[in-house]
Amino acid sequence: MIKKGIGRQIVLQYFIVVFVTLFMVEVIFSLAIRVYYYDTIYNHMSTHSTWASDFFQKFVRLNAERDPDYFTEMLRTFELDNTELMILNRKGEVEASSNAFQADKAIQTSDVSQAAAGSVGKWVGRQPSTGEMVMAVSTPLQVRGENRFIVRFVTSLEAVNSNLMKLSLLSAAVCLAVLALVTLFSIGLANSIVKPINNIRAVSAQMAKGKFESRIKGNYRYELGELAATLNYMAQEIVRSNQIKDDFISSISHELRTPLTGIKGWSETLTLGGFDPEETKLGMGIIAKETDRLIGLVEEMLDFSKLQQNEMKLVISRVNLKELLQETMLNVWAKAEQKGIQVKLEDRTVQNITVVGDGNRLKQVFLNVVDNAIKFSNENSWIHLVVSRTEPEKVLVEVVDTGIGISEEHLNKVKDRFFQVNHQGGGTGLGLAISQQLVELHHGEMDIHSELGVGTTVSVKLPLAEPEEEDLESTDTTGESAVSAGDGPDNKSGPDKEGEMR
């Protein structure tokens, strides 16, 4: 007995379809073979009755007046095996018969009445005297154009019906055999579907319990194969995400422990007292710096949490993109100076570029991108911020560096949350993930192209704001600004003739 489930449903549906089909075939076959046999018998007797009628016409013309026993000649000439030949008058009374036992009453079956009316009659029914199934065929016999007599052939159908029953039983046995084979086949088919499903279900149950190392084994085809591959891929991604999460916890623990250690050490040291003002100022500066670092880490995680829960609120306004990029360059100036990296802004547009968005969040995006470029660039190299118009309604900002680059293996994962190419580089691994989502909140796009050992280009495409009159005025002739090692805020000069910030 097949237990309840999809296997039973498959077998039951196959069984019903095949059973109904075979039943219809059996019924049609039985009716067709019965009609064929009955028509063959009828055609045989009808042909002989027509011959008898033609013979009677000739015989009457030649001998009727001189030989009143012409019925005897007809019975002898046209008698068939296993068939009774009768000559009736119009009233259905038997005038002559090949059977020694003649009916004592007139025959009133439909074939006789049809023959009396001038047509060939057929009747199938039970013989009143014997109760057996018979077929009767009657044809009128004419004398001088008048229907005077009827020739009637009667044959038993018992043998035919017996043969028909045997054929029906044989065909039914064949149908049952076919039904049994189809049922066995459907059980095998159901098992071929149910077993993989049960296997997939069992492995899925293990995954639900946290055993993500489990994998669905077997080369399944079609949808089942796709389902198995999807679940295996899901488990693989969960394992990878868990590993990334573990790495993140380890990394963030280190990131938090380092500034906390500095804060704790200097606070305990300063508590002892006895330091001159310079040393106290140095210690307080370190505490403030490490505190800012902690605040930055916490804010980064809070930003990511808000983005994941769709709770990030943007303060929308018109933002001058060039000014925002210049501010970004000033913010990273000190870090770039330490490595001797020159950061240059190259504006390829002929007018001020204005976008609609949250200036602080957009600045956060570019700060993160440029900061990464500095972190992974070699000393005494350069970073270009290129602003251009590639589409009528959009502006493209490219941050191009000549740093260490990213391998193809890691390139598709760098924007994943918690992912870090170099875990010793510090950070939470959330910067690019946050930047990606912030850009998308501004209806923009962010792409990363990189080649290991050559450099990386981060492209940020943003929609332009509706133009206003002040946006149409050009404010820079060369479109080029730079912050380079050795130059910085201490140099109080403003932009020179070439538009460079020194």
Automatic annotation (TrEMBL):
SUPFAM superfamilies per UniProt: ATPase domain of HSP90 chaperone/DNA topoisomerase II/histidine kinase, HAMP domain-like, Homodimeric domain of signal transducing histidine kinase
- Please give, as recorded in its UniProt entry, the membrane topology of this protein: Multi-pass membrane protein
Catalyzed reactions per annotation: ATP + protein L-histidine = ADP + protein N-phospho-L-histidine
- Specify the Histidine kinase domain's residue ranges: 251-466
Q: Where is the signal peptide?
A: none
The UniProt keywords, alphabetically, are: ATP-binding, Cell membrane, Kinase, Membrane, Nucleotide-binding, Phosphoprotein, Transferase, Transmembrane, Transmembrane helix, Two-component regulatory system
Q: Gene3D superfamilies this protein is in? A: 1.10.287.130, 6.10.340.10, Histidine kinase-like ATPase, C-terminal domain
Record field: compositional bias (Basic and acidic residues): 489-502
What EC number is given for this enzyme? 2.7.13.3
| Protein name, entry field | histidine kinase
